[in-house]
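Protocol step 4 of 6: structure prediction from sequence.
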Amino acid sequence: MTSSISIAISLAYICVILSTAASPDHAPEALKMASFQAYKAAFNKVYKPEEEMDRAAAFAASVARIARRNADPENEAFFALNKYSDLSPGHFRDLFLRPPRPRETSAAALASRPPHWDGRQCSTCARFPELLRWTTKNATAEDFFLPETIDWRKKGAVTQVKSQGQCGGCYAFSATGDLEGGVFMASGKLVALSEQQIISCCSGKTHGCSGGDPGDAFKCLVSAGGVVSEAQYPYVNNESIKALRCNSAHMKGAHTAVVDSYFTISEDASQEGNVSRALVLLGPLSVSLNADSLQDYKSGVDNPSASDCPDWLLTHSMTAVGFGGGKSAVLGGTYSEVSQDGFYILKNQWGDDWGEHGYYRLKRGKNACGIATDVVHAQVSLPSNKM
C-alpha cells in the first residue's frame, strides 16, 4: 500500500470520527483505534510494546487539537496529521525544539547584544540593482512602501531544505541559512554551509544538540575566522560525545566565508517593520520564535492567537527568506511601521515532507509567535583566496 493511499485512508477515518461525534474526544474507541492504526501504516510507524498506548493517546490528542485549530475562523492556516502527530507537545518540544528562552532584560544581557542595523546598508543591491530604489537615499514618493513581495528562493539565494533530525541544533541551521544568503550576495554562488561546525566547535558559546542562540553562533564564527562548507564538515545528526567533539580534520581547509560581524535587526514588536526592510536590503535573516503551533502545520498563513503561541517564549529558530501578500514597512525614519497584511516565508529544517515542502508562512505585522523578538543577521565576506 502506497503512502499516499494510506494517508488518504487515515484522513478518511478521521473524517468519520469528526462527523460522528460533537468532538473527536467523544468518538467511539473503535474508530479512534482504527484511525491510529491507519496513521501508523501511512507514516511507517513502529513502536515498542510499552510505547503503544502513550503514542495512541498522543495521536488522539493531536486529532482533537487539529480539529480545534482548523475550526478557528481567525486562522488561515490548514493543520493536518504528519510525522509528529504521535508525539505529545512536551515530547515534541524535547525532541525538536530548544529549551524555552524568555528574552533576557538584565543590564549585562542588554550590554552584550550586538549593535542595531542602521537600516541603510544594502547587501543585495550590487547583485540586484533594481533594489536600490528601496534604499532611503534613492527612495521617491512612489517607493514609500517596500515591494509587496520578496522571495529569495526565486532569486537563487536559498539552499534546499535540510533536516536537523532529533538534534536540537535549530540555531545552527538558522545561522547557516542567513550566511548562505550572504555568500550568495557576495559571490553569486549558492553553497551549503556547515551546521556541524557550529554544533561541535562552538560549544563554549552554544550547547551542541541541547540548543543555542543564532547570535551566539555568529559570535563564535567571528572568533573562528569563518565558516566551512557542509561538504567539508558534513552534518551527522548524532548526539554522541564523539560526534559533538570538534573534529579538527574537517577544519583544515579554507573557510567558505569570513564572518566579519553581526547585528540586531529587531528585538521587539515595535521594530517589526525592520524585518521586512532587512529582507529586501540584506537577504535571508536568522529569526527565532515560539514554535508551539508548528507541530500540526500543513499549509497556508498561520495566524495563531497569543494563547496558542505566546510571543515572549522563544523555542525555535528558522531562516526568514521572504514575505508576501500585502503592503509592507514604510521607508524614512519610521522603519517600524508595518501593516498586518501578508506573511513571512520561513525556511524550517524538519525536512521537505513537513509544512509547505519544508516552509512555513506566518502572519506579518503582529509579532506573531514573537517573530520580531530576536532577529539577527551576519555580515560576510569571501576569503582572499576566493575573491
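Step 5 (inspection) to follow. Residues 18-22 have pLDDT under 50 and may be disordered.
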